[in-house]
Structure formats: C-alpha cells, structure tokens
Structure prediction request, 402 residues.
Amino acid sequence: MYRLVCVECGESFPPDEILYQCTRCGHLLAVEYDLETIDVDLAAWKRRPLSVWRYREILPVSIEPVSLQEGGTPLYHLSRIGEEIGVPHLYAKHEGMNPTGSFKDRGMTVGVSMALQLGRTSVACASTGNTSASLAAYAAKAGIPAVVLLPAGKVALGKVAQALMHGARVLSIRGNFDKALEMVHELCLSHGLYLLNSVNPFRLEGQKTIGFEALDQLGEVPDRMVLPVGNAGNISAVYKGFTELMTLGRMDRIPMMTGIQASGSSPVVRAIHEGLPEVIPDANPETVATAIRIGAPVNAEKALAAIRKTGGTAESVTDGEILSMQRDLARKEGIGVEPASAASVAGVKRLRDMGAIDRDEKIVCVVTGHLLKDPETVIRQCEPPLEIDADLPSLLSALQRS
Ligand code: AN7
Prediction:
C-alpha cells in the first residue's frame, strides 16, 4: 500500500521499518502510496465530517487511530485585514482550534497511532512547545509514556503547562531547540523510544490534511498557501498532500507555497532569496515568536523544493510586524493566535507592500496556534486592567477617563 522513499536518492524501504532518514545517503524520507491502486472515493470524503480522518485512504494508519477529534478547523475570510492590505480574497485556516490548540495534533494523531501500529511503547520529541503539548496529550490518550525536551526558558507558558498537565516527562535543556532535537534523536536511536519530531515521515502525513481541508472548505484551489516556517515540516507536508491530490486528479494546479519566517530566525528565506541549494543554519536564532525560533530546519530540503516547484516564495517579518498582526487579527477579525501564527498574515502584508502579490489572488494563510498558548507575550502588549472601587461612580469615572 505504501513505502518509505528517500527524497534524495529514491531508495525505498518497507513500511514497517522504523527509520528517520535514508540509511544509504542520510536524507529525509517520505511516505509514498500506490495512488493508482488505492481506491479513493472522493464522494465518500464529502460525506464524512471534516477532519484528519476524512482522508484516511491516503494516511498510513490501519489500526483504530489514537484520536482526540483533530482537524475540522475553521477557515475564516479576513475581510477587514484583507481589504486593508489590498488582498480582498484573504483567508485564515485557524489551526489553533485543534484539541491542544495547534496544528501539531494532526501530526500526532497519525504519529502516535503509528507508534502503536509499529509496536512501540514510548514516544519522545524535542520542541519549541506545541509539539510537546500535543505529544503529551496523544501519549496520554494512547496510554504510553512520553519524554519531551524543551529549550530552557524559551517555551511559552501555556505549552509547558499542557506538557506537564498531560503527564509527559518534561526536561529543559540549557541549549536551543536545534540542540534538543539532536539529543532526542540520539536518545530514540539508542533506547528505542519512537521519535515524533517532523523527521518522522508519518507525522507529516497527518499535517498534509490542512491543505485538503482548506481546499474542501474553499471549494476551489487557492492561488497561494502561506505558512509560518520553523522546522519547515508543515509547509512540506501541505505541499506533499497537494501533489497526491494532483495525481488523483482532484486538483489541476498547486498553490504557490509561501513560507514566512521571523527575521531573527530565517535560514529558509535566505536560501530562497540567494538561490542556495540548501540552507545555511542560524547558530543563534532569536524571535518573540518562540514557536519558530529554529536555526537549523530539518525539513529544509523538502520545503525549498515545495517553494521552488510551485513558484512560491519565502519572506521574513520583524517581531514588530508579527506582534502588530497578532493584534490586528485579534481586534479586527476576532481571531486569537500566537505570535508565530500571525507571521503568515504579516508575511502577506509585507509581500503585498513589496508588490510581490497580486490584488486578486486567493490566499489561504495557515494560522498555526492559539492565542492562549503564549499569554505572557499577550499581556506584555496590552494595558493591564484598571483596578477600581466596587461602586458605580468609580466605574463611570474610569470609563470617562479612557
Ligand atoms: C505555532 O513545537 O517546531 O515549520 O517544536 O508551533 O513545521 O516547524 C513548532 C513549530 C509554526 C512551524 N507555528 O512549523 C515545535 C515546533 C507554530 C508552531 C510552527 C510551529 P514547522
């Protein structure tokens, strides 16, 4: 039904082998289906609820999945912001509306299900926060232990709270995410834990359903898909899913895949702008959007191909632009997202200002995580509530003052 294939040398491996890279050349692996022989009933998809599992024929899981009812997230028309920045057909797919508040749940329902399917009894990841929150919850649902490694002091409060509350073994390392990923990868290889970072090709299979849902909700192929980029897994996953729908004859063109990074952490943007064959890592990435504070994106080779093959682009936005768009989404559209998520929409504004996006493009931005993930960054931007005496005159005088 499917096999693992190296994206570089094309070597293929059986589906039940536990591998995170090609044993021949060390490059990334991807799941490849026999799309000609799989019976994908597109009409059946329409009858099922919008969710990751609507698309189960092109997912690798054959057991009863470990599910918290992920996917089926809203697609909002950003009418005010779109009008303001000069792209009236602007939409946001709010992945913060998943069970643990980020798109990672799509990956984890598939990834943790695969852990069980492959007979593994413990799971692990490194994380800038959301992956750990999601893995902790799905491991709890599966009834297996999870180990998560975080960069000390650089993970938003809500995400740490989730990982702890769902019962993961949470360790903070004195180092950044890239180092944490290196360590957890070694731990998994030497001690048999199942690695659920995005080097795991099965996790990305779940995440490709963001694109499938967006298509089903929009009722047509958007011209452009815009995603915040950290480890570059999500943009690669959505692109891969689209290539499968093309093969199935469900799409006739693929949207321009567009990746947005924070200016203090933007190796993919530099590689695109300078036409480099691969990214040059940032040794010390820094941004208020801690979710995408990643200097050595492990899926870069997949993401560069996705962007280049679709005529897309990559751009960076400053922390100021990110926070300003986070406020605009909250106040002009009623959509609460964390800073990394606002980067995608801030990127559209920047690209439109540069003249790189046409006014009539239909654009879907993926907003990846919920506002409540990072309450501290929100509070820092807002005036604190005014404390007053508990009587009506005090209330009236306070309201007149502001
Ligand atoms: C809100 O949790 O890498 O480019 O360890 O949490 O697929 O990495 C999070 C990434 C965007 C970037 N938006 O996605 C982690 C982690 C949010 C995120 C990204 C992340 P990728």
